[in-house]
Design goal:
By secondary structure, the protein is mainly α. About 80% of the residues lie in helices and about 0% in strands. Helix 1 runs antiparallel to helix 3, helix 1 runs parallel beside helix 4 and helix 3 runs antiparallel to helix 4.
Length: about 100
C-alpha cells in the first residue's frame, strides 16, 4: 500500500510543473500566432491551460481523480499539438 501512495504522490507532483509550463508558455506567445496556426485564440488557451494547472495543483488525489486527468490532458494537448504549431508560425520561413 505504501508503494502505491508513493507512486500516486510522485505523479501528482510531476503533473504540477507540466501544467505550469503549459500555462507559462501560452502566456509568453504572441496572440496572433495562435490564430495564424489555425488554433483557438490565446485567451482560450490561457483559460484551458490555467484551469488545468490550477486543477493539477489543487487536486491532492492526483491521478485518482477525473479532474486531475483532465488537467494533465489539457496541458499535454497544448504541449504536443498547439505549442509546436505556434512556434513554427512565429519562427517564420527559413528562406
Amino acid at each position: 500500500m505504501l508503494l502505491a501512495q508513493v507512486i500516486v504522490t510522485a505523479l501528482w507532483i510531476a503533473g504540477i510543473p507540466l501544467g505550469v509550463y503549459a500555462f507559462g508558455h501560452a502566456a509568453m506567445q504572441r496572440a496572433d500566432a495562435f490564430t495564424a496556426a489555425d488554433k483557438m485564440s490565446k485567451p482560450v488557451w490561457l483559460g484551458i491551460t490555467g484551469a488545468g494547472a490550477l486543477i493539477l495543483i489543487l487536486m491532492r488525489g492526483g491521478p485518482m481523480t477525473i479532474f486531475w486527468i483532465a488537467g494533465v490532458v489539457a496541458a499535454l494537448v497544448y504541449i504536443v499539438d498547439v505549442r509546436p504549431r505556434v512556434l513554427e508560425v512565429q519562427k517564420g520561413s527559413s528562406w
